[in-house]
UniProtKB/TrEMBL annotation:
Family matches, as InterPro entries: ClpP/crotonase-like_dom_sf, Enoyl-CoA_hydra/iso
Domain of life: Eukaryota
Biological process per Gene Ontology, one example term: fatty acid beta-oxidation
Transmembrane spans: none
Major site of localization recorded for this protein: mitochondrion
Physiological role: Key enzyme of fatty acid beta-oxidation. Able to isomerize both 3-cis (3Z) and 3-trans (3E) double bonds into the 2-trans (2E) form in a range of enoyl-CoA species, with a preference for (3Z)-enoyl-CoAs over (3E)-enoyl-CoAs. The catalytic efficiency of this enzyme is not affected by the fatty acyl chain length.
Organism field: Nothoprocta pentlandii
Record's protein name: Enoyl-CoA delta isomerase 1, mitochondrial
Keyword Transmembrane helix tagged: no
Keyword field: Acetylation, Fatty acid metabolism, Isomerase, Lipid metabolism, Mitochondrion, Transit peptide
GO MF assignments: delta(3)-delta(2)-enoyl-CoA isomerase activity
EC number, as in UniProt: 5.3.3.8
């Protein structure tokens, strides 16, 4: 039997039935939900699961990102939460990325508000003390109406990425296809994951990589059958949580601090650069043409 004081350790070694084998009731699962996502925390293991549920494609709108920021803040402030698995409740789509409609035909004030929320999500996720794992349901080749880049950024910001093994699923930072330039902190995150040469080529071409290509390039760490995605994510989290938190957290901070500090130092400048760039008529025209193309494709 496992002494009550050692239950967190026993749960990691024995799995979810540790409390029952110790003669105690099952650990409580706490959940909070909103219109965009479901967050479940297993208090026994300290592992939370964030399920995106904003059909059809979990686009990263201002509302979605705001709700995600609130959810992450709640988990960060909960000392019992040590890890987060990000996945999707929408079949076969993790996130089709930043919502193009938030960047087209709006006021400069709206663009600034939207970009600050995008920045804050990345700062919170990339700098998180928690173990973060992306269980990527992926995006189909015919992405319906959004920009895959933002969904890719969320995954790149995690500690580990597991993708559904389906050659029709794609992932990448494809801004250049829309005439948009990936900001420096998107680029820095990508370089840190795959290296300079692969990132440079992929960003210039705006490439969307199939699941096998993503594994080969190092964009994702593993491919598994989609039905095994959640089990594999749980196993990976258990492996990471077997390490002392402080050593892992300090190492993570040491590896990522310079990239985080660069945005923190230039945060408002980055907002103004984004607003100035996205407000250009040539960029707005490109985005309008892209949305028209998508409407015709859906039609």
């Amino acid at each position: 039997l496992c002494p009550a004081g050692l239950l967190p350790l026993c749960s990691r070694v024995w799995g979810s039935g540790a409390r029952e084998r110790a003669g105690l009731p099952p650990a409580q699962r706490r959940a909070f939900s909103n219109n965009k996502m479901l967050v479940e925390l297993d208090e026994g293991s300290g592992v939370a699961t964030v399920k995106f549920k904003s059909p059809p494609v979990n686009s990263l709108s201002l509302d979605f990102l705001t709700e995600l920021s609130i959810g992450l803040e709640k988990l960060e402030n909960n000392r019992g939460c040590r890890a987060v698995i990000f996945t999707s409740a929408v079949p076969k789509i993790f996130s089709a990325g930043l919502d193009v409609t938030e960047m087209c035909g709006k006021s400069t004030e709206h663009y600034a508000e939207f970009w600050r929320v995008v920045q804050n999500i990345w700062l919170r996720l990339y700098g998180s003390n928690m173990v973060t794992v992306a269980a990527i349901n992926a995006s189909p080749l015919e992405t319906p109406s959004k920009l895959p880049a933002g969904g890719c950024l969320l995954a790149l910001s995690c500690d580990y990425r597991i993708m559904a093994d389906n050659p029709k699923f794609v992932i990448g930072l494809n801004e250049s296809q829309l005439g948009i330039v990936a900001p420096f902190w998107f680029k820095d995150t990508f370089v840190n994951v795959v290296g300079h040469r692969i990132a440079e080529r992929s960003l210039q071409l705006g490439s969307l990589h199939s699941a096998p290509e993503a594994l080969q390039l190092g964009i994702v760490d593993e491919l598994v059958p989609e039905e095994k995605l959640q089990d594999k994510a749980a196993a990976v989290v258990a492996q990471w949580l077997a390490l002392p938190d402080h050593a892992r957290q300090i190492t993570k901070s040491m590896m990522r601090k310079s990239v985080l500090d660069r945005l923190l130092t230039h945060q408002e400048e980055d907002v103004q650069n984004f607003v100035g760039f996205i407000s250009k008529e040539s960029i707005q025209k490109s985005l309008r043409m892209y949305m028209e193309m998508l409407k015709k494709r859906k039609g």
